[in-house]
Every structure is written in structure tokens, then in C-alpha cells.
Amino acid sequence: IIDLPNLPAKTWLKLSDIESIEKRRRDLDSFIKTLLLKKEVINHPSLRDFLELDLHIPIITTTGPKKLGELEELPLGVRHFLYLEKENILFLALSDMNIASRIDALLTNITFPWEKQSENHVTVGALLVYRVKHEEDSSSWEFERLWVKSYPAQTNILVWDDNIKVLCLGMDDGNIHCYRISTEFNFMQYEEYCTIKAHAARVMGLAIDSKKGYIYSAGEDKKFKISDLNYQENISELVVGNSPLKFLEYDVPNNRIFLANGAGGIYILSVATHPPAELAFIETPTKACIRELAIDYTRHYIFSASLDGSVTLFDLGKLGKERFTKTLANLKGKEKARCIAWRPVYKQLIVAYESGQITIWSTETGTALYVFEPHIAAITSMNWDDEKNRLITCSKDKRIRIWDLPFEWESYKPSEDLHVQFKKPEETIKQTDFAKGGNDNESDDEDLSG
Fold first, then answer.
1. Is the pLDDT of residue 94 over 90?
2. Do the Cβ atoms of 24 and 15 come closer than 8 Å?
3. What letter does residue 98 receive in the DSSP assignment?
4. At residue 101, what are phi and psi to the nearest 5 degrees?
5. Ramachandran class of 325: left when φ > 0, alpha when ψ lies in -120 to 50, beta otherwise
6. What whole-number percentage of the chain has pLDDT above 90?
7. Contact of 283 with 438, CB cutoff 8 Å
8. Alpha-carbon gap, residue 115 to 68, rounded angstroms
């Protein structure tokens, strides 16, 4: 929580005189009152339950997220998911989050030269496919498992191309597994199309260009690669900076690739030419590891979420003006932000954290509007549907949950706002040399344990 008031100090000895008892009572009363002026605190379910606010002070009511459905008790933690709305199909990339278990599986899965090759292995990662059944505006979501594929390595990232009906799965070992899936048979049948050894480390981002037959990928080996699906091989690679790449997004209409790395750098590339051309390089003010970007192509905004808790807003500008990208604002929230989504209609940011919490931020006031805890472990991926006002989250806690978010977050208006304003940077972030990347001093430590 941000900017909490100071808790009155405890005493080693029992308070006996009336004056000391009254002072402590006044201090505690002041602490509670100050605490209740914080929007993001008063909206937290744990505090509301502890103080029984809904029972004793019904005027202080809030409208929070409504859980529409969930898929729980999955065999492994969820790293990533894709939900195909039209087809009602859910793809899940699962991974073993226990490091001791993964080490044991690694030793067990080793095949020595004198041993017979076998397809049997201890499962470390898995791809699960579900058919989803639900009615509009209904809290009843049903999940029917269609098929599952297991792997001796952790899974990490998924991408689906509806034009060629291909699903690609990026792995921790650098491989990309590609599958053709028959939509004519309602996703019940799949064909193992190919496996491409793309990277020497974890695959962090994937995109498919179906017109060219290319796969774009970013890895923690600091490389951006282009692979040919038809020839099943790498055809181009770029070493991007001096820090592991953490995120990739493909701007299809404009043939642009957005990359983010572990040193707070954002690279914008053009893939309209071969090899790709650098359009711009920008940095966040704190240069902390960026886990995800949210991009508004209509308003030309880029939002970055970093492990140090900072969220930065960039003005991308119009097409062709990428080198003039400038920093507009920055806020500091809870540490270890992992996912970010933009709610353009309400000018709000949805930021998910390693702790399992989500904070809703207003970009107009720079304040936290609401905090809730949809998971008990790290949130690894989320998807915001602006049209349906729906948020889907998944976590290392082996759950995926669906939420309906309110149009307004609260009816209670405190006399003081949480004063965490977006701050303008001291100087504009300018284009720098493409090879520049900075020191990788912000490692992704939480993923070392799953």
C-alpha cells in the first residue's frame, strides 16, 4: 500500500496511567481515521472485513469487481493464456513453479548416450486446451478440457494466428513449438507442425506474420529473431542491447515491433524491410526491468510496467515520428509490477503485481482508485476486453479467473486524495544508438523460483 500513516508506537510495559491510555487511544483513533481517507485502502476487502465497514458504516460502500467464473485446481501454475472469444476456446501454458521439483525432473529427464531414446518424461510444462461455455452477463462459466500436451521444459508464451490456424508456444529452453489446429473439428484435432530452435534462453515474446509466413520472437538471450514457418528455420537475428528481452508486441498494420528489456529500454523496429530497421530507442526514467507494455495505437500512447513499481507514459507520436517519442508522466506504485492493461474509455490503468494484487490507477489524477487481490500468488498474464468490460487473469496459484469491472469504482468520496501524482520527467527521452542497452542490474528474480 502506498503512503500509509505511521502506526502508533507500542510500549514494552503495560500502560497503567489514564493519561497514557488516553493518548494511545487518541493516536489509534487518528491512525484509523487517516487510514480511511485513503481510497485504495478503504476499498481493500481485508480492511473492510476487519473493521466491518459494510455493517457499521453502510454509507462507505464501494462497487468492486464481480467474479464471473474461474478455472481452478489446475495441475501446474499458469504462465500465459489465450482466449478466443468467437470460438470460445481457451489455451493455457502451464509450468511447474517449484524449483526443487524442476531440478528433480531435469535430472530424471536426462538421457545418457548409452540409454535408449524415449518419449517418456517427467512433466515440467504443459499446453491445455479448453472449450468455454457461458452466457452473456452470466456468472456461470463452464470449462471442458479438449486435449493436453506435456513437455520436459517450462512453457512461457502463446500466440495464435487465425488466418493459418497455427498456434505457437515459446519455451524456457528457447524452443518454439508450432501446431496446426483444425477448426473444422472444433479444435479437437491438432498436428505437430514443427519445432524451431530459436533462442539460447527463455522465449519471452512471440508474433506471427501469416502473410510472410514468419515468426517474430524475443528471448532472454538478448536476441530478436525472424523464423520462417515454411522452411522451419531462422532467417534473421538482431542482438538488441545488453539486457535480456522481456516483451514483444507486433503492430500488424504498420509493420512495427515493440521490444522491452530488463534495463528499462524500449526498442521500436520496422519489419517492413529485411533486415529490420531501428526506428527508435527510449528508456524509462528508472531504467528498471520492464515486464510488459500496453500500447494505445489510436492515441499514440505507450505504458510500461516495471519491476520497481514504476509506470511510465510515453507519447509515441504519429507514424514515422517514433524517434521523437517523449516521456509524458511517471508514477510509482507497489514493487514488482508484472502486467499492465489500458482502459481507454475511463482513462484508467490496470496493473497486476507479483503479490497477486491488482491496482486500478486513474491517469487523470494519478491516484489509485481500487486495490483487490484476485490471486494468492504472482499474476502472470491478464487480458482486458474494453467492449465487454471484462478482465481475465491467471496466476502461479494454478487458477484463471474472469472478472466484470464496474463503471465507477466508488460512491464514497473522502476529503483527501491519495497524493501519488504522475510526475513529469526532467528531460525528454531522446533517440540513442541502437546497440545501447545499459547494465542488466534489475534481474527477474521472482521467475528464478518459478
1. yes
2. yes
3. -
4. -65, -40
5. beta
6. 59
7. yes
8. 50
Tell me phi and psi for residue 212, to 5 degrees. Answer: -90, -15
Q: How far apart are CA 402 and CA 396, in angstroms?
A: 16
Average of per-residue pLDDT across 60-86: 87
pLDDT for res 418:
30
E strand residue ranges, 9-124: 66-71, 77-84, 89-95
Cα 218 from chain centroid (whole Å):
16
- The DSSP 8-state label assigned to residue 10 in this structure reads P
Query: How does strand 66-71 pair with strand 77-84?
Result: unpaired
Q: What is the 3-state secondary structure (H, E, C) of 175-236?
A: EEEEEEEECCCCCCEEEEEEEEECCCCCEEEEEEECCCCEEEEEECCCEEEEEECCCCEEEE
**21 or 446: whose pLDDT is higher?**
21
Residues 166-189: pLDDT tens digits?
Answer: 999 999 999 999 999 988 888 999
Q: Is 318 left (phi over 0), alpha (psi -120 to 50) or beta?
A: beta
Distance in Å from the first CA to the final CA of the chain? 25
Phi-psi region of 300 (alpha: psi -120 to 50; beta: other; left: phi over 0): left
User: What is the pLDDT, as a whole number, of residue 254?
Assistant: 96
139 or 121, higher pLDDT = 121
Residue 435 has pLDDT above 50, yes or no: no
Per-residue confidence (pLDDT) for residue 352, from 0 to 100: 96
Q: How many CA atoms lie within 13 A of 329 on its CB side?
A: 14
Q: Are 244 and 220 in contact (CB under 8 A)?
A: yes
Q: Shortest CA distance to 284 belongs to which of 237, 247, 238?
A: 247
Give the sheet arrangement for strand 155-161, strand by strand: 155-161, 166-171, 175-182, 189-197
Residue 396: phi and psi, rounded to 5, are: -70, -10
Q: What is the pLDDT of residues 24-44, one digit of tens each?
A: 888 888 888 887 776 556 666
Q: Is the peptide bond before 244 cis (omega within 30 degrees of 0)?
A: no
Residue 181 sits at the vertex; the CA angle it makes with 178 and 184, to the nearest 5 degrees, is: 165
- In this structure, are residues 304 and 287 in contact, taking their beta carbons and an 8 Å threshold? no
Sign for the CA dihedral angle at 334, 351, 74, 405 comes to positive
Mean predicted confidence (pLDDT) in 291-319:
95
